[in-house]
Amino acid sequence: MEHGAGPKALDRLREAGAPLPTGWRKVQDHAKNGIVVQPAAQASHDEVLRWLLSVCWSLCPIDIDDHWLAEIHRPA
Questions:
Q1: Cα–Cα distance between 68 and 2 in angstroms, integer?
Q2: Number of alpha carbons in the 13 Å side-chain half-sphere of residue 38
Q3: Considering the chain, what is the average pLDDT of its residues?
Q4: How many CB atoms lie within 10 A of CB 73?
Q5: What is the C-alpha to C-alpha distance for residues 30 and 40, in angstroms, rounded to an integer?
Q6: C-beta separation of 3 from 35 below 8 A
Q7: What pLDDT, on the 0 to 100 scale, is given for residue 22?
Q8: DSSP letter string over 9-63?
Q9: Which residues 6+ apart lie within 8 Å of 71 measured at CB?
Q10: Is pLDDT of 53 > 80?
Q11: What is the pLDDT of residues 20-50, one digit of tens each?
């Protein structure tokens, strides 16, 4: 997840009520390169998408009143 929220975004998300779910692993939390996480193996697409949207709402500095589009990419 690329964002412009600065360093330690996962700490901000935890404070905002959108912590990294139990069993998920932080791969990267970098101010310029964004957040990369590894969801738990049993995490559903719905769970992953809900968390990603909560990240968007928590880290976006402006109000967004538009629709979201999600894509799921699977290894070949």
A1: 15
A2: 6
A3: 85
A4: 5
A5: 21
A6: yes
A7: 94
A8: HHHHHHHTT-PPPTT-EEEEEETTTEEEEE--TT--HHHHHHHHHHHHHHH-SS-
A9: none
A10: yes
A11: 999 999 999 888 888 899 999 999 989 998 8
